[in-house]
Amino acid sequence: MRACDARREDQIESIDAIRERNQKLIAMSGALAKHLPEISPVHANGGANASTPEKQAAMTDVLVAALKAGLTNVVTYTIDDLGTPITG
Q1: On the chain, which terminus has fewer CB atoms closer than 10 Å, C or N?
Q2: Contacts of 11 (CB under 8 A, 6+ apart)
Q3: Distance of CA 43 to the CA centre of its chain
Q4: Which ranges in 28-51 belong to alpha helices (H)?
Q5: What is the pLDDT of residues 33-83, one digit of tens each?
């Protein structure tokens, strides 16, 4: 198999995996709806006017909802606003 054929096959597999994931999300939409957090209107349109504590609270709500809904069992969260560069 040529390299471009292998790459194309990898791309097709990636698209298929995304489609499969979307189908799983559709199947569990009822369970997801039960755990949707209520997000303050201050976060509309990207939340440019939200304070750091408001943003942290909203992110915590989203993370907890994802855990409760079974979307993930691990989260990583940095709660500081110390200007720490995040890379990778």
Answers
A1: C
A2: none
A3: 16
A4: 29-34
A5: 999 998 899 988 888 888 888 888 899 999 999 999 988 999 988 776 677
Nearest by Cα to 35 from 64, 75, 56: 64
Q: Amino acid identity, residue 7?
A: R
What is the CB neighbour count within 10 angstroms for residue 28?
A: 13
Q: Which amino acid is at 70?
A: G
pTM above 0.85, yes or no: no
Which residue is associated with the tokens 């006017």?
49
For the record, the structure tokens of 32 come out as 């997801």
- Token readout for 15 is 């698209």
Q: What does DSSP assign to residue 42? A: G
Query: 63-75 burial string, b = 16+ CB within 10 Å, else e?
Result: eebbeeeeeeeee
